[in-house]
Design a protein that fits this description.
This protein has 331 residues and is an alpha/beta fold. Helices cover 38% and strands 18% of the residues. The strands form 4 sheets. It has a 7-stranded parallel beta sheet, with helices on both faces. Strand 5 (111-117), helix 5 and strand 6 (162-168) form a beta-alpha-beta unit. The structure holds uridine-5'-diphosphate-4-deoxy-4-fluoro-alpha-D-galactose (UFG). Uridine-5'-diphosphate-4-deoxy-4-fluoro-alpha-D-galactose is lined by residues 77, 79, 117-119, 141-142, 170, 188-190, 193, 206-208, 219, 221, 259, 282, 285-286, 289.
Length: 331
């Protein structure tokens, strides 16, 4: 297949591109490199640098290439930033998706795999969370992802674009050889922050909250290896290619780890002491987030293959290879 990947220089996008090329797909990347990295762009992918909100640019890309499908990763994805600058999220994420759908409709590209998020659910009491749970996003990031999903649904009605929206839980890990991985600035996610302490770039891990009603008082999350995640995207593409109907599907493991369990596993993987201290709760953090994943198994025949140790070991290999990120800390 010839696939357009928006955000193909980003964390998840770059891992998808690598896996797609390994499966002999032709890949074209569009990325504005605002949060993506030129170093993460696969040498065998064709790359157009630009912003999906630039309609002329996007139209040109679609004119040059005849795509069989799009995989849409390009978006801002920091919850806390979205609380401070909500319009940035609606502009980049929602308006960007309008432009993409418009170009797909105009150029008759009728299959879309969309990078959605567990953030569309908001705070839920019932675990695990299934796709039928009512969506009540608790921040503009989650709201923007829900709006994007809904626009895509209406686009199917009007423009015959079939889609699979994949709602990710906590994604972590890196390519097995550590050649690409997670490099955000600022870094807000737990696992890369823990590994920065292992690299001695930070003196200690700060754990947000120790008084949650959980087994050890810290929050619980459902972690999924980025390689398992991108495998689900390839399956979603095949599923659409086979002519099946649109779906919304969770990607998670149905297993939760507490923040303290992450620190313990990282100690085991890195063989370092990894000091930590507790601070207050981070606003907006749900106590527990665990995915129901039966639908992914039923529809995509997908189950995560890699556990927490493999997730943290692969991330550690990336961090050791790029201790200050792709650009050696230069930004
Ligand atoms: N945490 C710490 N210390 C840190 C970083 C995180 O204690 O330095 C804690 C958080 O408070 C939370 C847990 O680790 O309890 C996981 O936090 P992350 O930031 O790694 O991930 P989130 O669960 O906040 O975010 C994930 C996805 C988002 C999505 C969100 C939905 O990464 O894209 O779930 O709530 F929006």
């Amino acid at each position: 297949m010839k696939i357009l990947v928006t955000g193909g220089a980003g964390y998840i996008g770059s891992h998808f591109v690598k896996a797609a090329i390994e499966q002999h797909h032709q890949v074209v990347i569009v990325d504005n490199l605002v949060t993506g990295h030129i170093e993460a762009i696969h040498p065998e992918a064709r790359f157009f640098m630009g912003d999906i909100r630039d309609r002329t640019f996007l139209d040109d890309v679609f004119l040059h290439e005849q795509f069989d499908a799009c995989v849409h990763f390009a978006a801002h994805s920091l919850v806390e930033e979205s609380m401070r600058a909500p319009l940035l999220y609606f502009d980049n994420n929602v308006y960007g998706t309008i432009c993409l759908i418009e170009a797909m409709a105009k150029h008759h590209v009728e299959a879309l795999v969309f990078s959605s998020s567990a953030a569309v659910y908001g705070v839920k009491e019932e675990m695990p969370i299934s796709e039928s749970a009512h969506e009540t996003p608790a921040n503009p990031y989650g709201e923007s992802k829900l709006m994007m999903e809904r626009m895509i649904r209406w686009a199917e009605h009007a423009h015959h674009i079939r889609y699979v929206s994949l709602r990710y839980f906590n994604v972590a890990g890196a390519a097995e050889d550590g050649s690409i991985g997670e490099d955000h600035f600022p870094e807000t996610h737990l696992i890369p922050n823990v590994l920065q302490v292992a690299l001695e770039h930070k003196p200690e891990i700060i754990i947000f909250g120790q008084d949650y009603e959980t087994k050890d008082g810290t929050c619980i999350r459902d972690y999924i290896h980025v390689l398992d995640l991108v495998d689900a995207h390839l399956r979603a593409l095949e599923y659409l290619h086979a002519g099946h109907r649109s779906e919304i599907i969770n990607l998670g493991s149905e297993q939760g780890y507490s923040n303290l369990e992450i620190v313990h596993m990282a100690r085991h993987v890195t063989n370092k002491a990894l000091p930590f201290r507790f601070s207050g709760r981070r606003p907006g953090d749900p106590k527990v987030l665990i995915a129901a994943n039966a639908k992914a198994e039923k529809i995509l025949h997908w189950r995560p293959q890699r556990g927490l140790e493999s997730i943290i070991s692969s991330a550690w290999r990336f961090h050791q290879r790029f201790p200050s990120g792709y650009q050696g800390g230069q930004r």
